[in-house]
Amino acid sequence: MKKHHTIIIAGAGGIAEAVGLLLMEWSEVTPSLFIGDRTHSKAKKVAQWIQEGTTKSRFIQDFHLAEKDLTDEMKAIFHQGDIILDCLPGSQAPRIAQFAKDYKLHYANLTEYVAETAEIIALAKDANTGFILQTGLAPGYIDLLANGLFQQFCTDFEVNKVDKLEFKVGALTNHAVAPHFYGFTWSPVGVATEYMEDTIVLRNFIKTTLPSLSQRKNIIIDEVTYEEDLTSGGAADLPDALSGKVCSLDYKTLRHPGHYAWIQEQITNLGNTADAIKGLQEKMEAVIPHIEDDKIVLYAAVEGKDATGILRRREIAKCILPQKVGKHQLRAIQTTTAAPLAQAAQLLLETPHNGVILQSQIDSKSFLNGNYILNVYGNI
User: Fold this and answer.
1) Half-sphere CA count of 62, side-chain side, radius 13 A
2) Global confidence as pTM
3) I need a surface site. Which of 108, 161, 279, 342 has the fewest CB within 10 A?
4) In this predicted structure, what is the pLDDT of residue 1?
């Protein structure tokens, strides 16, 4: 941030603490932070954690973000704020977005939830402030990387259509053991949701819906073999933005080999369960451990013929490891998710915006070269 701003962070999980620390450490002018959660003790703990981890002078205050009510304390803080960064579960996103609209605050969120995103698009269409949606890792950074790759390919090879645009992300552990070949590095409910909800893709240049986990393949990235499969939410709005321009477009999640076969077995055993997402989450949590040591593997590629008819392909791959920020060591999933959220905050606060800004509407080159992004992802 190049000016002083008051930033409200909704939520008190790992991403909330990470974005707070990134904003304190990497902003040119240190912001003031309010940290709110429905469990006040968690908000207090995150505020204390950021205070202990930052090397900058700071104003950080925790507050109780009531789950249903609008308290006087919340009203006072909303009146002071410039933006809300929503790090709560996706089901809460429309409520927090409504607060942002009502109190004329900018808003940015992380959720891959499709229905909630559509609800926010509807409520914020006439807002006086800016709403950047789905601005984490996937959806988020990976969509900007893929869209930028597509745009540059078209410019360099003098075309306006391509055959394939594929982008993939894996939040992975360094080791994987049978039978599940996985360890939780982020929200179990988020993992279960992306496995169970349908995914939006382009096929034959037309937007369509496919079942998640229905197109499994192997891929080699930097000489390591991973499994890839369709999952929901990660494509953001690119299927809409690039319809008619890309023949085949999809987002896939990367996993260690063997994981998806185990997941498919669990889903089959669930049968016609009323709440399949919760059922799968419970089956996973019963046997899959949470692991702190993580890495993020990401890959994007565009393929098509140039103006002379030669088939071309461009690829970008990255592996992001845990990183020290201030006095704390952050997991890779924290920095890679929090950095785009912080970059989105700067974009909203320092350039005029109103209404909804989707991933395809953000200038990829400028955003991916922002200070918060470069400190985590490096140059393209």
Assistant:
1) 20
2) 0.94
3) 161
4) 83
